[in-house]
Design a protein that fits this description.
By secondary structure, the protein is mostly helical. The chain has twelve helices and eight strands.
């Protein structure tokens, strides 16, 4: 195999970006949970230790995003609202009254936010899904049965829409193990929540999708069980539930723009893997007993500790 100098350079830049992005995410989380914020603020002031590494990572991430923007700007003549998502934002931003520097900063933040939302969240969700599926063989059998009604590997969008049990199983997996387990918002004005709770300006308002997914008041006595059936009606058709009861993709005006794309990607991956392979989790999957003390590693994402080692057997 031959690699041109340009391609190799791009690969190197991508690797540098991905490593820098992981470093930035890790240090952002460490700042968030630091019991003594003064420590990291002092490090930032003197540009030493972890804060120096964080600054370097941010510079790499920002430069990578800017390179993408400049590359797209070079294609301005052929760019329309029918092109890719970034191109659509670029066209729309022309009417926002921003100067060139502000506009590029806005587009940079758009790129970074989409990478942050989609880079590891889908992979994290699928990791827990296959772990749970290995511990619940009857659910695996029902998904395989459903796959007999479609035609892998050339699966169409319409065929994916018919996989109601798979959709339910993915939703149930994320109910128990949401990729982003905790979310926080900072209030800009005094406010009152719907239940009458006062929230002052400058307060943090946090919610935990992980905890909410295990609340008997919301999900019943079987809330800690993996039961995809809770998402299906009497005819086996998937039924979405209240977004504020299931805030895995947020809710209201903050609903995740990539929700449907995330489901689509996960379905494609599951169909491709399960059509070709038997997946056996080394050490056993997420049985009822193991779900009592799941092997998670908390950061900005609810990652699985030490990953998910599996054996694949060709079907």
């Amino acid at each position: 195999m031959f690699v041109t100098g340009s391609s190799h350079s791009n690969d190197a830049k991508s690797m540098s970006f991905m490593q820098a992005f992981d470093v930035a995410v890790e240090h952002t989380f460490n700042r968030f949970i630091s019991p003594l914020p003064a420590i990291w603020k002092i490090k930032r002031f003197f540009n030493i230790g972890s804060e120096k590494k964080y600054k370097q990572a941010i510079e790499t991430v920002n430069q990578f995003a800017m390179d993408i923007i400049k590359s797209k700007e070079a294609q301005t003549d052929s760019m329309t609202k029918e092109d890719d998502l970034l191109s659509r934002f670029m066209v729309s931003s022309q009417d926002m009254g921003l100067n060139n520097e502000e506009r590029r900063g806005f587009l940079r933040d758009i790129i970074i936010s989409f990478v942050l939302a989609g880079k590891d969240s889908t992979a994290t969700a699928l990791t827990w899904f296959f772990w749970l599926l290995d511990g619940h063989p009857h659910c695996k059998d029902l998904i395989r049965k459903e796959l007999t009604n479609i035609h892998p590997p050339n699966v169409t969008f319409d065929e994916l829409k018919t996989l109601h049990y798979l959709h339910a199983a993915l939703s149930e997996s994320m109910r128990l193990f949401p990729p982003v387990p905790i979310n926080s918002r900072l209030t800009v004005h005094d406010d009152v929540l719907p239940d009458g709770t006062f929230v002052g300006k400058g307060w943090f308002a946090d919610y935990s999708a992980y905890a909410m997914g295990r609340m008997e008041r919301l999900w019943g006595l079987d809330c800690r069980e993996f039961k995809p059936e809770r998402w299906l009606d009497g005819n086996g058709v998937y039924q979405p539930l209240d977004q504020f009861k299931y805030p895995v993709f947020h809710g209201g005006f903050r609903m995740c723009l990539g929700k449907e794309m995330a489901y689509l990607q996960m379905k494609y991956v599951v169909v491709a893997v399960m059509y070709q392979f038997e997946v056996e989790v080394i050490g056993g999957g997420g049985t009822v007993e193991k779900m009592v003390n799941p092997p998670y590693s908390l950061s900005l994402l609810l990652s699985m500790k030490n990953g998910l080692p599996v054996k694949l057997k060709k079907r």
